[in-house]
Amino acid sequence: MTCFAYFFILRENMASSNPLSNFELMVMLALVRLGDEAYGVPIAEEIEAHSRRDVAVGSVYAALERLQSRGFVTSRVGEATAERGGRAKRYFKITGKGLKVVQKTHQTLMSLWNGLPKLQGGKV
Amino acid sequence: MTSLQPPKLATWLLRYLGCGDNNAAVMGELAERYQQGRKAAWYWGQVLITIVVSPFNEVRGRKLLTLRAVLIGWVVLRYVLLPPAALILGGIGDAFAADAWRRGEITPSWCAVITLSLAALSLVGVLNGWIVSYLHDGRRASLMLHAITVLIIWISINPQGEGIGRLLFWLNIMGITVGILIGGLFIARPRNLEGEIA
Q1: Which residues of A touch B60 (CB under 8 A)?
Q2: Do A56 and B46 touch (CB under 8 A)?
Q3: Strand stretches in A1-124, DSSP E
Q4: Which of the residues A102, A108, B46, B135 has the least number of beta carbons within 10 Å of its own beta carbon?
Q5: Interface of A with B in 79-98 (CB under 8 A)
Q6: Cα–Cα dist A7/A63, whole Å
């Protein structure tokens, strides 16, 4: 029974090779910008400030959980505060593997972007 | 600094229906942003989005664990919990309400047997939900999917009958399904409230 359970856990933890979604990439970039102080509220605010649209905290956490399961992000439990109703913060940090994926995605996008006259000068 | 309390019902719903490993942290984030001057409508919107998004995310991230939960839940319900309940309830029904059932009459003894049946099947559901939740570390998305699966399979394979029989059918299945949700979501200790002090 234990081996049976381990099979499921190991299979679940195998790294996925799916590329990052647009929103996951934004979350990863927000983590890079925020450094050690990245938790839900600043991450959402950072994305809102740059995308100029409201971000659901639940969606941010859903993306963070996916990224963590793929080894791109680590997390630690921080301090609890009264304004959070006594609930602890969870700080997130990008891993070396995550940083490489962001760089690779950037290179791919830039490579696709370059040499497209239609996208030059902000006019389509 | 004034302390604004976010809507209690929304917080309660998120506490018990929110999935994912970081539910307590999400609750903290929403409370913190609410303190910064957000409206109650904003809070409700965020809670509803989280309740809808988080189960899909959990199932997507834990497909095989979810499948295991559904399979184990069904096997325990079908082969461990239901047979003794059906045996006892069948015996009681034959002894006290068989004549009324054949005549299609609603008598006090018949009503008592139906109430007992509903209570017993709800208890079976509660036990089943608790077992699934306990064996799967309190993962709520798996539990919800198990409840939906039981509902669909039960409706598919059992005859619904006519008149009172149909009413009985729906009472039984609702008793079991609601029992599973109560046992798994409200009685079993949720796994994703790490860091919650209050």
Answers
A1: 66
A2: yes
A3: 73-80, 88-94
A4: A108
A5: 80-90
A6: 25
Q: Quick check: A41 and B53 CB within 8 A? A: no
Which residues does B86 contact at the CB level (< 8 Å), separation at least 6? Answer: none
Angle between helices A22-34 and A96-113 (to 10 degrees): 120
In eight-state DSSP terms, residue B182 is: I
Identify residue A28 by its one-letter amino acid code. Answer: M
pLDDT of A45 reads 93
| Paired residues of A88 in beta bridges | A80
Distance CA B101, CA B73 (A): 32
DSSP state of B192: S
Q: Please tell me the distance from the alpha carbon of residue B105 to that of residue B113, in angstroms, as a whole number.
A: 13
pLDDT at A18: 65
Angle at A77 between CA A74 and CA A78, to 5 degrees: 120
With an 8 Å Cβ cutoff, are A57 and B57 in contact?
no
Q: What is the pLDDT of residues A8-30, one digit of tens each?
A: 555 544 444 568 899 999 999 99
Burial of B70 (0-12, 13-18, 19+ CB in 10 A): buried
Contact in structure between B25 and A61 (CB atoms under 8 Å): yes
CA distance A17 to chain B (A): 14
Task: Find the DSSP H helices in B2-62.
Answer: 8-17, 23-35, 40-61
**Pairs of CB atoms within 8 A across A/B:** 111
Residue B50 has pLDDT above 70, yes or no: yes
Q: Quote the CA–CA distance of B174 and B170 in Å, as a whole number.
A: 6
Q: CB of A29 within 8 Å of any CB in chain B? A: no
One-letter amino acid at B84 equals P
CB contact under 8 A, A80 and B33: no
